[in-house]
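Run log // design_07
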């Protein structure tokens, strides 16, 4: 079948279509957040101050936080959830005293190797603050980087102490509760690296020699 003669305007329109189709689509990178919405948090009175910020805005299925909670209770809390334990586990413990490395390791192992554990450093003006924070860094280093993530609440809170914390230097003002939840959410998002989606297959155009010659004469494409 012979193509009909095309006028200049029609050729320009067709040429633009050819050029648009000829451009190869670029692969797009976006976070793999398929598991990021499944999350639970356990903590002490600091986390308790942000409980509703977490439940209402950050898609947590459970926030188990209590006043005067000791770190040693952490592993049992996770064991108690069993198979119902979500993919992402956020832990803020150690505000109220000793937090041994063996307890932290036991807690991570209780979560299991298929879950991501987010250990939050502590902001508490007590003698055990630097000891517990150093231990949390060591605990995180003891496991694969994609399994255990350190969330440096101490670093963030120290830079906004007057705005985020009450006069005791520990518990959260409303602005601190919002910041606490935002920092956790950001840490979870960061734990899911971008994945590249493959571009679609390029469209193959079928033309006639006459059509291609007309396109060359118009300067729309180059001669083969």
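design_07 sequence
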């Amino acid at each position: 079948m012979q193509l009909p003669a095309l006028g200049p305007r029609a050729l320009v329109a067709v040429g633009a279509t050819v050029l648009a189709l000829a451009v190869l689509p670029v692969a797009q990178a976006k976070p793999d957040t398929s598991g990021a919405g499944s999350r639970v948090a356990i903590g002490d009175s600091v986390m308790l101050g942000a409980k509703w910020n977490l439940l209402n805005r950050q898609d947590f299925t459970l926030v188990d936080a209590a006043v005067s909670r000791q770190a040693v209770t952490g592993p049992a809390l996770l064991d108690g959830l069993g198979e119902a334990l979500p993919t992402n586990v956020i832990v803020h413990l150690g505000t109220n005293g000793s937090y041994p490395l063996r307890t932290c390791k036991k807690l991570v192992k209780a979560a299991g190797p298929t879950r991501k554990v987010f250990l939050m450093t502590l902001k508490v003006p007590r003698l055990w603050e630097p000891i517990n924070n150093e231990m949390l860094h060591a605990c995180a280093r003891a496991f694969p980087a994609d399994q255990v993530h350190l969330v440096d609440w101490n670093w963030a809170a120290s830079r906004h102490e007057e705005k985020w914390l009450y006069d005791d230097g520990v518990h959260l003002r409303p602005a601190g509760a919002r910041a606490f939840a935002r920092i956790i959410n950001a840490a979870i998002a960061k734990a899911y690296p971008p994945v590249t989606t493959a571009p679609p297959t390029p469209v193959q155009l079928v033309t006639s020699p006459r059509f291609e010659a007309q396109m060359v004469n118009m300067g729309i494409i180059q001669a083969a």
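The longest helix spans residues 174-190.
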